[in-house]
Amino acid sequence: MSEQLKIFETEKSGKTYRAIRHDVVRSKQSKNSEETHHPIAKTRQAEKILKGKKGMQILELFAGQGNMTRIFAKHGDVLAAEKNKQTFEILNDKTKNNKSISTVRCDSYKFYHSLISMGKKFDIIDLDPYGFPSRLMPDIFLLIDRGWIFITMPKPAVNILNGITQTHLITYFGEPNPSKEKIIEKFATFGLCHWRKLVLVNHFELKSIYRFVFHIEKVKATDYTGVKNQ
Ligand SMILES: C[S@@+](CC[C@H](N)C(=O)[O-])C[C@H]1O[C@@H](n2cnc3c(N)ncnc32)[C@H](O)[C@@H]1O
């Protein structure tokens, strides 16, 4: 948008340009559009990775209206978490006839800690928040000993970063504008915090997000480091 148009828009509505842009994004999100949730690209990727796999235990945090939930359910049992009341109702409605799907209305950022304390393990985890998934690192890896993790990561460079998100990115990635390579490297490092070896097996990128799939395997610290316990 040109500077002149930005000024016109903001004067007309009395809102800042940032607030208007935020409203537009929220409206597209509530319509579950390809532009904001990318179901076609995510489905194509998941089907490639999960082809032929059955009987998986799957945890889907930030499940939204269930675009991916129904795809994952073809490969096993899905526990799908969603916080927003209206979105959760749509999720429930769309999945209620599928016995492989359980839904829970909760704050995913807190819920996954309760799963850890219950000793739950999954073969597949999907992290698809609107913001940065880094807040779930490194403890999310305690929920998976062997399998795959799907992670959506907003591209820092194309999002409007305020001081809070810049500080967040510096805290988790060591810099305010980490490259794709740096993000991949840091996720692998977070895995190693709990002795999980992460290998990137697939990814795609769109205008504003990366979608990564890592294979995860729990490793023995002694094997991984080559250090022998005396
Ligand atoms: C990017 S959308 C998910 C889209 C979905 N995975 C799909 O493929 O269609 C993020 C979702 O997370 C939900 N959400 C936001 N904060 C949450 C939280 N703390 N806990 C659980 N869900 C949350 C939003 O309501 C939204 O539905």
**Can you list the ligands bound to this structure?**
S-adenosylmethionine
Shape: globular
Secondary-structure element string: HHHHEHEHEHEEHHEEH
The largest beta-sheet arranges its strands as 3-2-1-4-5-7-6
N- and C-termini, Cα separation: 65 Å
Q: Classify the helix fraction into a percent range.
A: 40-55%
CATH-wise, what's the superfamily of the largest domain?
Vaccinia Virus protein VP39
* CATH T-level fold name of the largest domain: Rossmann fold
Mean pLDDT: 91
Ranges where pLDDT stays below 50 over 5 or more residues in a row are none
The number of helical segments is 10
Question: What share of residues are in beta strands?
Answer: 15-25%
What is the CA-atom radius of gyration, in angstroms?
Answer: 19 Å
Quick one: CATH class of the largest domain? Alpha Beta
Biggest sheet features: 7 strands, mixed
